[in-house]
Structures are given as C-alpha cells and as structure tokens.
Amino acid sequence: MDAGLTATINPTDISPRRDGGGRGPTATISQTEELDLLVQNASPDPFWQKESPYFLVECKNWSKHVGARELRDLWGKMEGRYDRCRLALLVAPDGIADTVRTLQLQNAKQSKLVVLIGPGDLDWLVAGPDRSAILKELHQRAVSAASSEGDVEGST
Questions:
Q1: Most buried in the list 62, 67, 126, 147, measured by CB within 10 Å?
Q2: pLDDT number for residue 28
Q3: Which among 110, 134, 130 is positioned nearest to 121, based on CA atoms?
Q4: Which of 84, 8, 5, 11 is nearest to 44 (CA)?
Q5: Which residues pair with 38 in a beta bridge?
Q6: Number of neighbouring beta carbons within 10 Å of residue 35
C-alpha cells in the first residue's frame, strides 16, 4: 500500500482488478465480527497523520447496492477499537444506496468518518497514477458532504 499505510496481509493476495479477478485477503474473523481489512496508519504524510492510528476497509462485492445496515455495522466495528479507529472505507463496486448517504449526514457530528467508494470511484482509484491523492480527494468529498448539505434533522 502506498503513502505509508500498512496492513498485515500479503500484498500478492490482493487483486487491484475492477472485474473481480484475483483473490482478496482473508478476512479477519473473531467470535463477534468479521473484518475485511484493518490497516495500520504509518503514513509520513501530514494529511493522514491527523487521522486515527487504524483504518477499517469493508468491501461489499454484491450484485445490489449497499444499504444503511452495512454502514451501521461498520460504525459498530469502528467502535470496538478503543477509539483508535475513526476512519473507514466502504467499498461497493455495485453502488451505494441513497439511504447510506442520508444516514451518514444525519450522523455527521460523530467522530467516525466512513469514506464511500462506489463503482466510478473504484475505477478511478485502481487506474489512477496517484492513489494517495485520490484517497485524499475521496476523504475530502466525504467530509465536505456534511458541510455542503447542512445538518439533516433526525437521527437513527
């Protein structure tokens, strides 16, 4: 992984192919949860140094859009990390339901941020020459969504 982001997986086990070819890393499974990827943030980049020591990556290679339940589940996984994981990437090659974005906006005041990576974003990330810059832009888009949309009333 670039930008000093490290993970305890064998890089040869990861396929960057958008078509689903290749093999992904084995999920970490405990008695209470399954994690697709836990990334240790060892980046020398000041942008990433401001983030939490660990990131979660949740990959949903489904034939349907990812919904609000998956976002809630991911927030729950982030909470179980002694406040050392406040950033996650939710990767959904087949799309993300509008309910996910709405729920994200409703909870924008919490300290946990989930960066949504849909089909176009994934293509851009895989093909892009500077993945760190692309991830920064996706991160900024996620943060900016809350301020540009304003606070959405209600909570879940």
A1: 67
A2: 64
A3: 134
A4: 5
A5: 56
A6: 16
pLDDT tier, 14 (very low <50, low <70, confident <90, very high otherwise): very low
Rounded to 5 degrees, φ, ψ at 107 are -110, 25
Alpha carbon of 148 to those of 67, 105, 154: distances in Å? 22, 10, 17
Q: How far is residue 39 from each of residues 48, 64, 86, measured CA to CA in Å?
A: 12, 26, 12
CA geometry: angle at 113 spanning 107 and 115, to 5°?
Answer: 115
Q: Which two tokens stand for residue 94?
A: 């087949």
The 10s digit of each residue's pLDDT in 60-82 is: 988 899 999 999 999 999 998 88
- Pick the closest to residue 110 from 141, 65, 72 (CA basis): 72
Pairing of strands 85-91, 113-117: parallel
Contact 81, 112 (CB under 8 A): no
Q: Is residue 118 pLDDT above 90, yes or no?
A: yes
Domain residue ranges of the chain, discontinuous segments joined by +:
26-41+55-149
State yes or no: pLDDT of 21 exceeds 80. no
CATH number of 26-41+55-149: 3.40.1340
- Does the pLDDT at position 105 exceed 80? yes
Reading the block at residue 61, the tokens are 């290679």
